Known about the structure:
Oligomer: single chain
Number of helices: 3
Amino acid sequence: MSDFGDEIARQLATQPKFARALHYAIDHCLVDLIPWVLFTSDSQISTRSKGINEAYTERHVLCFAERRDTDDVGCVVLESTADYAAGEVLIIHDFASPGWEVDVSFSDFWGGSEQPSTT
């Protein structure tokens, strides 16, 4: 299973369904899904999450991926808000004006699709 430091592991533990999906993707080398790239290190996750959470303060998220061709960042909501449930996945367009940053949301990591079969 993929390893993250204590702080990232603690944050992921608040969303076990999401954490399982992220670990599955990393452990099965599903990290370079053009145009998306999953973050596999604490520093990538921490740096991007800090920037997104400082820019858009109305929710607390953990960033896990970014697009190579845009400023879009994949994030999981860590704490429910009036607009988004904990565990929901948001595609946030970094550098957008606050209130306009969420491009799309999904109920979970797989975007409504089934987890890939392990057989």
